Amino acid sequence: PCALPIYLKYLLPFSANPIEYRQNALSEAYHWQRASHLFRKELNSPLGLGLQNMDPILTASMHLARQSFLLDDGDLEFPKSFVNVPPEQTASAVHWFTVQSGIKSLLIAFQPHIPQSIWLPVFRESDDNRGTFFDERPGAEGLTPALAEFCGITETSTIVNNPYHAPLRLLTPLLQLEAGIQTFTKLITFMGRMDARFHGLLIEKDTRALLLFSYWLALMLKVDQWWIVTRVRHECVAICRFLRNDPDPRLRTLLEFPAKACEIDLETDGHIKPNIQRPWMNNGGASTMSSAISF
Fold first, then answer.
1. Packing angle between helix 54-69 and helix 226-243, nearest 10 degrees?
2. Has residue 197 got a pLDDT over 90?
3. Residue 269, exposed/middle/buried by CB under 10 A (0-12, 13-18, 19+)?
4. Which of 61, 86, 110, 222 allows an S-S link to 287, with CB 3.0 to 4.6 Å?
């Protein structure tokens, strides 16, 4: 297909293992730059978006999403988390998450051809047969009660009049899953489903949005993949530290779930708990972290 070079270019930076990836940063940056150029060029192709370039473009987009997670290993002071940078830098610092909303527009554009996509089985796995993970019904029924109350969601709330409704409506069934690589296709949909309102709240460092975001980060930690875990753990720890001194007494209890997932002690200035064997240090293996509150 005419768009195949995009796919090949996006494969190159990930063809190495994690150690080689970090050692060949210059080569990796070159291939990402070239891939991004080809990607933009194909999006503006005079032939438009259609069956001829659907799979290469969707594949490239998914690799771009994977790239956005990558964060070099470093110390655990988290000075560059979006909650810690100056206001004028926040949008850029959280771009790794907000950039994922573009996949929704691509899926809409390719909708007539999706049944012919090589990714159709993956898209089907993003939901169940009951539409659980695409539930947009109004009101608080079925939502995690403590989170719904904290986010001001009532029986009259909808995804239109309450910016926390859609995120929590999706987050609630995700919290019922046994989070891990087996449920990755459902967990990752959170990125593409969040809209500009939620992104704006994150950029404003809104307490409720940060709390909901930290819950999703805690779930993603359990996926336990090298290209995910450093980023989500950095951001989850940073958010827990940022919120731990909020005067609202409800927040300390609600923070217990993400704090336990990222292994920090809310009672000791958010210090990382010592002597904990982390699952991502074991050359793989499933995470055994459990919930701190009931859902």
1. 50
2. yes
3. exposed
4. 222
Question: In terms of C-beta density within 10 A (0-12 exposed, 13-18 middle, 19 or more buried), how is residue 20 classed?
Answer: exposed
* Choice among 19-23, 83-87, 94-98, 204-208 with the minimum mean pLDDT: 19-23
Which phi and psi angles does 272 have, rounded to 5°? -70, 135
- Of 176, 165, 241, nearest in space to 208 by CA: 165
CA atoms within 13 A on the CB side of 81: 25
Which residue has tokens 């990558």?
70
User: Which DSSP category does 100 fall into?
Assistant: G
Name the residue with tokens 């210090």.
Answer: 271
Residues in the chain: 295
CA torsion through residues 20, 274, 267, 79, sign: negative
Handedness of CA 14, 16, 21, 23 (dihedral sign): negative
Q: Which residues of 102-132 are buried (b: 16+ CB within 10 A; e: fewer)?
A: ebeebbeebeeeeeebeeeeeeeebbeeeee
Contact assessment for residue 183 and residue 132, using Cβ atoms and an 8 Å cutoff: no
Q: How far apart are CA 289 and CA 278, in angstroms?
A: 9
Kindly report the backbone phi and psi dihedral angles of residue 264, in degrees, each rounded to the nearest multiple of 5, phi listed first: -120, 155
% residues pLDDT > 90 (the chain): 46
Cα distance from N-terminal residue to C-terminal residue, the chain: 47
Closest CA to 159 of 149, 169, 150: 169
